[in-house]
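Lecture notes, unit on protein representations.

Consider one protein chain, 227 amino acids long.
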Amino acid sequence: MLKALLPLLLVLAAAATAQEVPVPSAPPAPAAPPAPAAPPLPMVGLATSEGLITITLESRKAPLTSANFLRYVDQKRLDGTSFYRAMSFPRDPPIGLIQGGIRNEAKRILPPIAHESTARTGLSHDDMAISMARGAPGSAAGDFFIIIGGLSGLDAQPPGSGDADGYAVFGHVTGGQDIVRRIMAAPTSPTAGEGAMKGQMIAAPIRILTARRIKPPPATPPAPAVP
């Protein structure tokens, strides 16, 4: 009887031993590679007779308007133009804008671009924003203005409460803000200009000597995810 049971006992013992062997755990999944850093935003340096103004373009939020400005820069159509208008309000500190560009000079002008509303881009006419001058929406070409202090009334407004289209912000001054403020304080002619611009034309326009792309600082890679 014992001899008959012996094979069965050996099988049961082997099965028990097999159950005690630990099953190796699966290797951990490899860490996901870090997301590539977003390319830096393009930058432009306006060398003026008062000094250098550096502009960073919001090319991801306002791609059409940024590309238009870069066309004027790359084709050197802004070289030899000027800041010719300064509008300020008597606040402390003062707020207002300065306007520059081609002044619709025929030999410099490129076809106008479609309007990129701030309601779509999410940008605003806050301090040191740069925006496109225009007549009707869709007529912007090579004239632009820089905000000092913030003029949110130039943003697209809700229906029935102002200009529903507003003006197209496409970047910010990130260097030379003191020069922008100095230009706003430049003396203006009491008689030059037409309509709302009368009295806002700079008596001795500030020359834009050159406008060139400048190398942005290296992009900062995103921080690794914390498990």
